[in-house]
Amino acid sequence: MIDKVCDSPATALAGLRDGATVMIGGFGGAGQPAELIDALIEHGARELVIVNNNAGNGETGLAGLLKAGRVRKIICSFPRQVDSQVFELVPQGNLAERIRAAGAGIGGFFTPTGYGTELAKGKETREIDGRMYVFETPIHADFALIKAERGDRWGNLTYRKTARNFGPIMAMAAKTTVASVHEIVPLGELDPEAIVTPGIFVQRVVKVARTATGPAGFKQAA
Description:
The structure is a single chain. Helix content is 18%, strand content 26%. The chain is an alpha/beta fold and 222 residues long. The protein has one domain (18-107, 138-210): Glutaconate Coenzyme A-transferase (3-Layer(aba) Sandwich), CATH 3.40.1080. The strands form 3 sheets. An 8-stranded parallel sheet has the order 1-14-12-9-2-3-4-5, with helices on both faces. A 3-stranded antiparallel sheet has the order 6-8-7. The protein starts with a strand and ends in a 15-residue tail after the last strand. The model is unreliable at 214-222 (pLDDT under 50).
């Protein structure tokens, strides 16, 4: 019997090692898997490479992970500040497409975004139909920590509104995807037409309580 449900966020992170590349979903507070981030801090893994849209706010959630000194490098489109971490800044659309490319098995793609700027330094460029493009490579991860609304024991997921954001593409780009959900339902209860992330892309599911506010006071979208 396939059962991907874990009893706690801590057990859901089993096997995560120092130096791992970890994708973390969320756009600001919307869709940020706060409980999984807290479990990652408690886990103690160091020298992590974090892939996220932004580097967190305040001192909780992802910002708390940075404050704890667990991050060697962060790949993001919007940093919180300049500090000791090494940032790889990526335009938001490029970030999403690099993650999607990893999940789709694409070896890279050309984009006009970033051409002629410091972001293109050292990268292959090419003229296509009279316009200059920059070659971008996919971003793969060892773990993806994402937040969904509902799931079943096979790992099928549905999302709520803007909390969906990077979750579906990150789930496809990681070796191990851990999804926190507010509700675990029996098999067959999720409408197949409403399932956004099929269980084949999810290895672990953990139920977390719904809270009124997220990290740093952000109102939850889910």
